[in-house]
Amino acid sequence: MPELPEVETLRRELEPHLCGRRLEAVSVRRRDLRFPLPRDFAACAQGLRLETLARRGKYLLFHFEGDLSLLCHLGMSGQIFTTAPPQAGTPRHEHLAFRFSGGRRLRFIDPRRFGFWDRAKTSALGEHPRLCHLGIEPLGDAPKLDGAALALALGGRRCEIKRALLDQHILAGVGNIYASEALFRAGISPFRAANTIRARRAERLADALRAVLEEAIEAGGSSSRDYRRSNEALGYFQHSWGVYGRAGAACPTCTCKPETTGGVRAAVQGGRSTFYCPRKQR
DNA sequence: CTTTGGGCCTGGACGC
DNA sequence: TGCGTCCAGGCCCAAA
């Protein structure tokens, strides 16, 4: 389940291997990803030099020379590898393969096909329908994610804060894991109405969001069944989860015993699992 | 405008 | 062993 830290880890890993290289060939095995691959996808960037690799929210952006960019969203189970397949032959869910100059290859694997790719003019990326409504970039400047910016972005929404954090139009890049973790660190209940987070709470939450995302990037992201790094290494931030996936376990900051208090709780909000400590989070 | 819920998709876990 | 069912959650979209 790639969220911002996993995509940023991927970006950092790919950058030194790919930037400056020419895209020699793109092979397409399946076009029916989350959205159909554009007709000219394989041809549009062929022969162009990759200038920079960027990220916006959970999107990976390949900026080529000649005003062309490729966008990649990993969805739920999307993975990108620069390594060769572990066994000979093409893996079952390898939908795209890119060959860069110098022989460097990039493989896109996505069993659930919730991921997708698109192409756009770099100069018009801001108007791309998937990017134009994205909210605050949590680790960016302008606007820097602080309490005031967060409270403004939440904009008096009456929905639960957990749901608001998952709304990419408010904040870009936070998914289910890091939303739970940030709320836990900030001591804010996931059920609290978003419009009650204004001053001090907003400051705490903004700080918690930035901190948890930065620490996760530092750790190479959180590994799961659906996420491996491009070099097949494992991220290890899952060992630092305070509440996510830990229902019934002792809250790491409480001294109360889970046998008597029930420990970390699990709930469902908007069809998504949420984990929280009812004592610490209000 | 906001909010809510369903749909897409597959592999793995689980119960019988 | 094998079958059916449920679950994970990224995003979009229709409906209220």
Describe this structure in words.
With 282 residues, the chain is α+β, with helices and mostly antiparallel strands. It has seven helices and ten strands. The strands form three sheets. It has a four-stranded antiparallel sheet with strand order 1-6-7-5. Strand 9 and strand 10 form a beta hairpin. The longest helix has 19 residues. It is globular, with a radius of gyration of 20 Å. The model has no long low-confidence stretch (mean pLDDT 92). The protein binds a DNA duplex (16 and 16 nucleotides) through loops.
Record the SSE blueprint.
Layout: H1 4-18, E1 23-28, H2 41-44, E2 50-56, E3 59-64, E4 68-73, E5 79-81, E6 94-100, E7 105-109, E8 116-121, H3 147-154, H4 161-166, H5 176-186, H6 200-218, H7 258-261, E9 265-269, E10 272-276
The chain binds a DNA duplex (16 and 16 nucleotides) through loops.
- The residue ranges in which pLDDT falls below 50 over 5 or more consecutive positions are none
The description of the largest β-sheet is:
4 strands, antiparallel
Helix content: 10-25%
Task: Enumerate how many helices there are, as a single number.
Answer: 7
Strand content: 15-25%
Mean pLDDT: 92
Radius of gyration: 20 Å
Extended strand count: 10
Give the SSE string.
Answer: HEHEEEEEEEHHHHHEE
The strand line-up of the biggest sheet is: 1-6-7-5
Structural class: alpha+beta
Which descriptor suits the 3D outline? globular
Distance between the termini: 27 Å
